[in-house]
Design a protein that fits this description.
Elements (H helix, E strand, L loop, with lengths): L19 H14 L7 H14 L4 H7 L1 H10 L10
Length: about 90
Amino acid sequence: MQELGLEALPHPPYSPDLAPTDYYFFQNLDNFLVGKKFNFREAVQNAFEEFVASRPADFYKKGINKLPMRWQRCVDCMGDYFEYQK
């Protein structure tokens, strides 16, 4: 990279602020599961499948399209924690 004049920027090995599953998918799944109780593993699996099937066609695209904004917020905060904003 140095030969090409590129600079490697430090970054955390894992950041929930940057993982779309953490800030988008699981947040929506949590909201879907609010108030539901499960007694069997099959019921949990059925609820998960119901969640996935009930998402609109553009659900995943929206989550991916939010990535650049999340990345920029992390850069602006210099990697520090920031509160979720819709």
